[in-house]
Amino acid sequence: MSLHEQRREELVEMIEGAFVYFTMNLCASDIQDSTRYSMRRALKRPHQNEEEFNTDPFEEGENGDWDFEDNEQQQSSSGGDSDSSNHVDNELSRNPPELLGTTSKRLLTFRLRALAQIYELLVENRHATKRDLFYESKKIYEQQSNFDRALTAVCNFLMASRSELHVISCSKGFAIGSLKLLNAMDDNEIDFRSGTIALNESLINFDFADSDANAILILEKDSVFQHLLDEKFMEMFPKTILITGRGYPDICTRQFLYWLASQLPNIPMFILTDADPYGVEIFLTYKYGSDRSWIESGGITLPQLKWIGFLPSEANNLPVPENQLLKLTNSDKRRIEKLSTKVLSLGENSVFDELAIMLSNNCKLEIEALYTLGDKFLSSVYLKYKMENQ
């Protein structure tokens, strides 16, 4: 049995144990004297019998509750309130379903339904997108964001990535360059030299076949990706693999890069972003993983990734027109302060210095500002120098 199959069977058993334990709690004759509704404990002992049930043998601790916590950043990004979420999680941990408030009951319903859907995928050994699962039970979830948060909770609960739970993404990432993949099952081949390829999760069925790449370049923006192709970047740098996550990277794009780095461990990996707080945040997400859910994304990191531009310190050294210098907003300044603390804790001292320069200059710049410096300046001058002098 492959490791993948072993993991699938392990997750199936964990979910079955959780449902058994939860059902036993519901069937308890004395709700007030029953054990707390801790499904995480069910994973510690999925086959606990009825006699053991009332003795509550499990240790209390910070993970003893139903630890289905939604990450604060994910809540805020989707319009949720972190204090409200914490209240709901506490209520789920401490009260039987009969005593829950309306909001907590809804949240409990979302999470149990998502857990059931994941169970079906694993048992039937099939895959589905987040969108598929949402529409399958749209009347329950009502909004995609409700399912997304429930899925994150399930990932955290099972300590499993989305890919392990057979949930696939419709990636927004693209790649082109010196890379060839092969599906050993049907001899189907994907040649990234032939044109732009969408980075969907079907690529996990392909094996590494061939590459003579000497560099991987990640671009924050799709518009810059297209601009470089128009400038014939791939003709100038035929041994480069060019990738864009089209903004804040999704898990699928990051998974592909993580896999690619494992196949080509000895070639450098660079990233080009805007010289603004969001550009720095995107760089950190690629390199260190997402704050939203480390477990959900499977701990995908790229420790070898280097931020080569656009650097705030270059604003004073390049003849960029003044109309390209954008003033920082109050929101930008708050984000810079938060990022400064984070990069120091990560030992990214050079990034800390760049953030300090950005704040001192009170301006940010987009990559497109480099277009004003001449035809093909970005490809033949800026990136050529950067990639050859790292």
Overall domain count: 2
Given as residue ranges, the uncertain stretches (5+ residues, pLDDT < 50) are 29-37, 39-85
Measured distance between first and last alpha carbons: 44 Å
Report strand %.
5-15%
Give me the strand/helix succession. Answer: HHHHHHEHHHEEEEEEEHHEHEHEEHHEH
Overall mean pLDDT stands at 80
- Compute the number of helices: 16
Supply Rg.
Answer: 24 Å
Per DSSP E runs of 2 or more residues, the count of β-strands stands at: 13
Principal-axis shape = globular
Strand order of the largest sheet: 6-3-9-8-10-11
Q: How would you describe what is shown here?
A:
This is DNA topoisomerase (ATP-hydrolyzing). It is found in: Nucleus. One of its GO terms (cellular component) is nuclear chromosome. The structure is a single chain. By secondary structure, the protein is an alpha/beta fold. The protein has 2 domains: 3-168, no CATH class; 174-388, 3-Layer(aba) Sandwich (Dna Topoisomerase Vi A Subunit, Chain: A, domain 2). The chain contains 16 helices and 13 strands. It has helices at residues 3-26, 39-44, 50-53, 72-77, 82-94, 102-124, 130-136, 138-141, 144-158, 222-230, 233-236, 251-263, 277-288, 330-345, 349-361, 377-388; strands spanning 128-129, 167-168, 174-177, 180-183, 188-191, 197-198, 207-210, 215-219, 240-244, 269-272, 305-309, 326-327, 363-364. The strands form 4 sheets. Strands 6-3-9-8-10-11 form a 6-stranded mixed sheet. β4 and β5 form a beta hairpin. Residues 29-37 and 39-85 have low confidence and may be disordered.
